[in-house]
Design brief:
CATH class: Mainly Alpha
Largest sheet: none
CATH topology: Growth Hormone, Chain: A
Strand content: under 5%
CATH superfamily: MFS general substrate transporter like domains
GO molecular function: transmembrane transporter activity
Helix content: over 70%
Main location: membrane
Number of helices: 15
InterPro entries: MFS_dom (IPR020846), MFS_trans_sf (IPR036259), TM_effector (IPR010290)
Order of helices and strands: HHHHHHHHHHHHHHH
Distance between the termini: 21 Å
Keywords: Cell membrane, Membrane, Transmembrane, Transmembrane helix, Transport
Organism: Thauera propionica
Number of strands: 0
Shape: globular
Structural class: mainly alpha
Length: about 425
């Protein structure tokens, strides 16, 4: 699916050059608003779970429930959406996500939420996101006229995510102090209309659809991912980094309340620090043009995340902990985004939707598994020891990535 010929394009500074494409501007603007609302809901949901139950294990379970559908449903969703009109599907999914947030708000206002219901709503959100994420990601290439601008568009897309990640948690902490979790859920419901409107305004030619059954389309994508060494290796690094480093999100409410004796504002500050580091990472990647150099960025991201986890685990000085969270956010961001940039550039057009779905399912699915394990582990050995162990495991894995970095880079050079 390519942009219509003759679509107006503005010349902009190189770090934001993809915004010169009309279609991508509409998408990007809606994406920023939608993601800000999603981060507000995520923080409010975590606070609601811990406020009602005081259970760190349930924090891990609800996070797992929200993310594991990406791992289970995501790859099949990628094959299914390749057979349909992606633009129309994306608008429909925004409406369903808004409905989920409104139902959650109503149940919260009526004091009808409990552990089982919170887990159920998290599963529903995860299933919808299993379709939403590959739908968003796989269409970015069609929103820019020049393929050379695709890496910059992907970096800016990640920047939108991290703007929300940076601003959303502190704003959620403020809103939770002034209003309620239900109000945060309503704001998130409204935010989906921005992306739906932006996608509705986009004008692109119809994309060719994959033929055959969903199962055969899925098998074709899986075979490609497994056979290609750089694709397979990048996804392995992605899985390990998110299994360990991304688990911080589950443990932060416990650190905020029990280690730092704080409240929702403390949680917002820690989460916002991680978002600030992630935002800086995407700013850095927006200036990158040399794709093979991104292999070193992926490895560096895992190393920085490991150091951040180790520094954060037993530190009780809030400013230092915020700096450590910034390191974790930076490392996860540059690792995930650089991996996505490499995968989408390496993948042929006809398989990009399925490669993106494998990226998304790995990114969020292993985040889910890591969150569940971290929550259960923290309940057994304590939250600080759990964070320390995650950092040690990731640091050991980084040693292996240093051994394969040369071959991985050579394979990327050969293909681009």
């Amino acid at each position: 699916m390519q942009a219509e010929p003759g679509a107006p394009r503005r010349r902009l500074p190189d770090p934001v050059r993809a915004l010169g494409h009309r279609n991508f501007r509409y998408y990007f603007t809606g994406q920023v608003v939608s993601i800000l609302g999603s981060w507000i809901q995520q923080v409010a949901m975590s606070w609601l779970v811990y406020r009602l139950t005081g259970s760190v294990a349930l924090l891990g379970i609800t996070t797992f429930a929200a993310l594991v559908p990406m791992l289970v449903v995501g790859p099949l969703a990628g094959a299914w959406i390749d057979r349909h009109d992606k633009r129309r599907l994306l608008i429909i999914v925004q409406g369903l996500l808004a409905l989920q947030a409104l139902v959650l708000a109503a149940l919260t206002m009526l004091d009808l939420v409990g552990p089982a219901l919170l887990v159920g709503m998290s599963v529903l959100l995860g299933v919808l996101n299993a379709f939403d994420t590959p739908l968003r990601q796989s269409q970015i290439n069609s929103f820019v006229d020049d393929r050379a601008d695709l890496p910059n568009a992907l970096a800016l897309n990640a920047m939108a995510f991290n703007v929300g990640r940076f601003l959303g948690p502190p704003l959620a902490g403020l809103l939770l102090g002034l209003t309620s979790e239900a109000f945060c859920f309503v704001l998130n419901a409204l935010s989906f209309s921005a992306l739906a409107f932006g996608v509705w305004r986009i004008r692109v030619a119809a994309s060719p659809r994959a033929t055959g059954s969903t199962a055969s389309v899925f098998r074709e994508g899986l075979g490609y991912v497994w056979a290609e060494y750089p694709i397979r290796t990048l996804i392995l690094i992605l899985a390990t980094a998110n299994l360990t480093a991304s688990s911080y999100a589950v443990l932060l409410p416990v650190f905020a309340k029990d280690v730092f004796a704080g409240d929702a504002r403390t949680l917002g500050m820690l989460w916002g620090a991680a978002g600030g580091g992630a935002f800086l990472g995407t700013v850095f990647l927006a200036t990158r043009k040399h794709l093979p150099g991104l292999v070193s960025v992926v490895v560096s991201g895992a190393a920085i995340s490991a150091l951040g986890l180790l520094l954060f685990s037993y530190n009780r000085i809030l400013p230092v902990s915020m700096f450590a969270m910034g390191m974790v956010g930076l490392g996860i961001s540059i690792g995930n985004v650089a991996t996505n940039m490499l995968l989408q550039t390496l993948a042929p057009d006809r398989l990009r939707g399925r490669v993106v779905s494998f990226f998304s399912s790995t990114r969020f699915g292993f985040d889910a598994i890591g969150g569940l394990l971290a929550g259960l582990l923290a309940a057994q050995i304590g939250v600080q020891r759990a964070m320390l162990l995650e950092g040690v495991v990731l640091a050991v894995f980084v040693i292996w990535t240093l051994r394969v970095r040369g071959r991985l880079r050579d394979e990327v050079v050969r293909r681009v």
